[in-house]
């Protein structure tokens, strides 16, 4: 059975290893639209989307619990528009 069948938006609870590897991109907002972060899975399917200036809630859903500070450091150092593998 194809593991992508029945796949959801990624906001539901999942196993920690489901999103290995994970990719991150920071997108520059315009005018009143804020900068935001996208987390994508190995197929580049969007699994999380949040404002760059606000922390992602419920990190355990993505296997990132306890890595809040490391994720914040990656986000701050990440250039706009550059998709890269999330390694924290």
Write a short abstract of this structure.
Helix content is 11%, strand content 20%. It has 88 residues and is of the alpha+beta class.
Q: Would you mind describing this structure in some detail?
A:
The chain has 88 residues and is of the alpha+beta class. It has one domain (21-85). A hairpin with a 5-residue loop joins strand 2 and strand 3 (46-51). The longest helix has 10 residues, at 68-77. Helices cover 11% and strands 20% of the residues. It has a 4-stranded antiparallel beta sheet, with no helix packed on it. The chain has 1 helix and 4 strands, in the order E-E-E-H-E.
How far is the N terminus from the C terminus?
31 Å
Tally of individual domains: 1
Strand order of the largest sheet: 3-2-1-4
Global Rg? 13 Å
General form: globular
Unreliable stretches: 11-17
Class by helix and strand content?
Answer: alpha+beta
Number of DSSP helices? 1
Largest sheet: 4 strands, antiparallel
Number of strands: 4
- What portion of residues is helical? 10-25%
Beta-strand share of residues: 15-25%
* Mean pLDDT figure: 82
Q: Helices and strands, in N-to-C order?
A: EEEHE
């Amino acid at each position: 059975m194809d593991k992508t069948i029945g796949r959801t938006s990624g906001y539901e609870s999942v196993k920690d290893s489901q999103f290995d590897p994970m990719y991150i991109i920071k997108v520059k907002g315009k005018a009143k639209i804020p900068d935001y972060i996208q987390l994508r899975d190995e197929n580049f399917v969007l699994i999380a989307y949040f404002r760059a200036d606000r922390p992602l809630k419920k990190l355990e859903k993505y296997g990132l619990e306890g890595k809040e500070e490391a994720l914040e450091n990656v986000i701050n150092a990440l250039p706009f528009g550059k998709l890269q593998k999330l390694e924290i």
